[in-house]
Amino acid sequence: MDTNTRQDGASGTDAATPTEHPGSSRREFLGQSGRVAAGVGVAALVGNLGQYALSYGAGGPPIKIGILHSLSGTMAISEVSLRDVVLMAVEEINKAGGVMGRQVEAKVVDPASNWDLFAEKAKQLLLEDKVSVVFGCWTSVSRKSVLPVFEKNNGLLFYPVQYEGEECSRNVFYTGAAVNQQAAP
Description:
Strand order of the largest sheet: 2-1-3-4-5
Helix content: 40-55%
Largest sheet: 5 strands, parallel
Number of strands: 5
Distance between the termini: 27 Å
Structural class: alpha/beta
Order of helices and strands: HHEHEHEHEEH
Radius of gyration: 20 Å
Number of helices: 6
Shape: globular
CATH superfamily: Response regulator
């Protein structure tokens, strides 16, 4: 068998390369990632609400979610787009009728790239704004600063990026890859 011919008979040079995905772009990837994260978050939220969600059903109060990404300071360049993706997902979910007939309401806060302020804003979202779930943090240090707040108050955080691993909390969905998932053999 020729070394450039696959078992199915196609030439190795005819195969699509990983960069040949029509219509794929960073913007589409971020948008899709945000919709998936929001969908998973809302699904988890609905499961978390249990009888409360069922008792209200259609037309009940909105489901409040928090967005904890820096909109100012050094990390804003990376985090503003994450806020935008979550807001886009909320808009799409609401246009489709919401979750069990209830609209999703996003509360956006700006921790201003200040790690101590991340913990303060997380506490505000959970205790004052009474959100059911938070999407946020871009760095490990911001995640580590809010972790005690989420664990103490039994809050739920969706952390959107890769991380160093060796941390597991029932209050955090780590949606990014850990180190062992990034290394190639």
